[in-house]
C-alpha cells in the first residue's frame, strides 16, 4: 500500500556535516487546513539534522471534521524510521498555537537541549479520543518552560 502524506511546510535536511544545517527558522506562519479533504500527515513537519532550530509564533488550525488518527499538527521527529540519526539540537519551540491538531497536535523527538515554552494546544469539536502531545525532549535534558 502506498500512502501519500500531506504537508504544508516540510523541512528535510539529511546532511550531518559539521558547520552545516545550523540556525534554521520557521517563524510567523498561519496554516489552515491541508491540501486534501482529510488530514493525513502534519501541516508543519520535518526530519533531519539541525542545530539551532527555531519554530516560533506559528498558528496551525485544522477543521475538526477532517482530522484523523494519521494527522499531527506540528511534528519534528524521526517518524519515518530513518536509519540515520535525526535530531534538532538546541532548538526552541515557542509561541505556537495548534487548533484541532489531530492524533498528536505536537510531536517533538530527538531534541537534545530543546526549550519548549508558551505552546497552546486546543480542540474545538474534535470527534475522537486523541493524544495531546508527545515530547521526548526531556529525555535529553531539555527544558520545559
Number of strands: 14
Number of helices: 0
- What is the mean predicted local confidence, pLDDT? 75
Order of helices and strands: EEEEEEEEEEEEEE
Class by helix and strand content?
mainly beta
Low-confidence stretches: 136-145
Determine Rg (CA atoms, Å).
14 Å
Shape: globular
Task: Briefly characterize the structure.
This protein is mainly β. It has strands at 9-13, 22-27, 30-32, 44-56, 59-61, 72-76, 87-89, 92-94, 97-99, 104-108, 115-117, 120-122, 133-135, 143-144. It has one domain.
Task: Describe it.
With 145 residues, the protein is mostly beta strands. The protein has one domain. The chain contains no helices and 14 strands. The radius of gyration is 14 Å and the shape is globular. 32% of the residues are buried. The C terminus is likely disordered.
Highlighted features:
mainly beta, ten-stranded parallel β-sheet, four-stranded parallel β-sheet
Describe the secondary structure blueprint for this structure:
Blueprint: E1 9-13, E2 22-27, E3 30-32, E4 44-56, E5 59-61, E6 72-76, E7 87-89, E8 92-94, E9 97-99, E10 104-108, E11 115-117, E12 120-122, E13 133-135, E14 143-144
Parallel strand pairs: 1-4, 2-4, 3-5, 4-6, 4-7, 4-8, 5-9, 6-10, 8-11, 9-12, 10-13, 11-14
Amino acid at each position: 500500500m502506498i500512502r501519500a502524506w500531506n504537508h504544508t511546510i516540510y523541512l528535510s535536511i539529511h546532511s550531518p556535516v559539521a558547520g552545516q544545517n545550523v540556525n534554521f527558522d520557521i517563524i510567523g506562519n498561519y496554516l489552515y487546513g491541508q491540501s486534501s479533504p482529510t488530514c493525513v500527515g502534519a501541516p508543519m513537519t520535518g526530519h533531519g539534522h539541525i542545530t539551532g532550530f527555531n519554530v516560533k509564533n506559528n498558528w496551525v488550525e485544522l477543521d475538526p471534521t477532517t482530522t484523523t488518527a494519521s494527522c499531527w499538527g506540528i511534528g519534528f521527529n524521526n517518524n519515518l524510521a530513518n536509519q540515520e540519526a535525526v535530531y534538532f539540537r538546541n532548538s526552541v519551540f515557542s509561541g505556537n498555537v495548534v487548533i484541532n491538531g489531530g492524533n498528536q497536535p505536537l510531536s517533538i523527538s530527538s531534541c537534545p537541549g530543546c526549550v519548549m515554552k508558551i505552546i497552546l494546544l486546543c480542540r474545538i469539536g474534535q470527534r475522537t479520543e486523541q493524544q495531546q502531545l508527545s515530547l521526548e525532549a526531556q529525555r535529553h535534558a531539555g527544558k520545559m518552560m
